[in-house]
Structures
1.
Amino acid sequence: MLKPPYTHYDQLFVYNFDRIDLGLIDDPDLIGTWIEDDTAILFFHEEKQKLVESICQRSGAKILYEANLNYQDWEAGLDITTFSVPPLIVAPLWEVDQLTDTTKDIPIYLDPSVIFGSGFHPTTRLCLQVITDMLSSGPEEIQTMVDLGTGTGLLSLGAAKLGVKQIRAYDNNPFACSVADKNVDLNSCGKQIQVMETDLRGALPDTNVDLVVANLYRGLLLDFFQNPDFWNARYYIISGFIPSMEEELLAALPMNQLKLLERRKSDTWRLWLLANSPA
Ligand SMILES: C[S@@+](CC[C@H](N)C(=O)[O-])C[C@H]1O[C@@H](n2cnc3c(N)ncnc32)[C@H](O)[C@@H]1O
C-alpha cells in the first residue's frame, strides 16, 4: 500500500518467491507481500535485484518469476480514477485533493493498492450499485452485513457510509486485509467494520446478518450454496460468475426458501440479489 514518500502507483516490480518464509523485509519501496498457496509475491515501486538476491541467499528461496509492469497494465489497462455510484463518490488517494465539497456526495477514500476492489471491475461496480440501491431506497433497514472476500474493503466501506452498523469483512489474503484495514482507517469506519483474515474454504463465518455480499468465484460459491449454514441471512448479493456458470449455480440454490429479486449484468459478468424466507 502507499506509504510516504509515495503518493500513487507508477511502475510495479514484482518478484514471486517459491516460499513464504523470507524473513523480515523492511524496505521503503515495498508495496506489500501477497501470499498465494506456499509462495510469496513481493510488489515494489522500484527495481530490487540486489535485495532479491540477498533474500534468496539468506532464505534459500528461488525466484519463480519476476515482472516489471506499469500500474495501468496491472489494472487491466484502466486508469484508476475517481468515480461515482450515487450517493457515493470513490476517490483513489492520489485524487482526494480534487474532491469538491458537495453535501450530496458521500466520499470514500481508497488506497486500491494491487488488491482486487479498485471499483473498476464490473463485478465490484455491480455490487456497489446494488448496495447503494438497497441502502438508499430499500424497503427494509440493513444493520448488519458480512462481506465474503473483501479485497480492498470497498463494498464494506460503501455499506458503512450508507449506515450499516456492523460489518464483518473476510479475506484470506493477508495483504488484502492490511489494505482493507488501512482503507477502514482512512474513512474512519473502524467502529463499523471489522476486517478478518480467514480462509473461507471450510470456515464459513456466522451468516445471521441482514445482508451477505459474496463477490467470489464459482467453486467457493458452490461450496457456500450447498452448505445450509450459509442461508441464515435476509438478503444476498452474489457475483463473480459469468453466464456459462449460471445454470450450475442456480441448480445449487435452495429455491424453496429463496427468491431471486434481481439479476444484473455488466460485460460478461452477472450478479444476483436474493431474498431469504426461511421456513
Ligand atoms: C473477486 S475479489 C472481490 C473483492 C471485493 N469484494 C470486490 O468486490 O471488489 C475476491 C476476493 O476474495 C478473496 N478470496 C478468494 N478466495 C478466498 C478464500 N478462500 N477465503 C477468503 N477470501 C478469499 C480474494 O483474496 C479477493 O480479495
Note: The two ends are 46 Å apart (CA to CA).
2.
Amino acid sequence: MGVVRFFLLLGVVFWVARFLWRWLQPTPPPMRADGSAHALSRCSRCGTLTPQELVVWQGDRPYCGLACRDGGG
Ligand SMILES: [Zn+2]
C-alpha cells in the first residue's frame, strides 16, 4: 500500500501547493483591448511623441506633422 499512499500524498501536496500559489499571486488586471488607440509614434525628425491618428507617414517613417515631414533635409 506504500505506492498508493505515496500518490495520495503527492496529490494532496500538489493541490495545497496550487492553492497556496493562487492565494499568494495577486490577480492580474484585465488586459486592455484598446491599447492601440492610445499608441504614440515618435517623430523621425524632432522626436515628438504623436498619437497614431495624427502621425503623418512618409514611407515607413512617422512624423509629428507636415512641417517635419516636408522640412528641408
Ligand atoms: Zn516632428
Note: The chain has a mean pLDDT of 85.
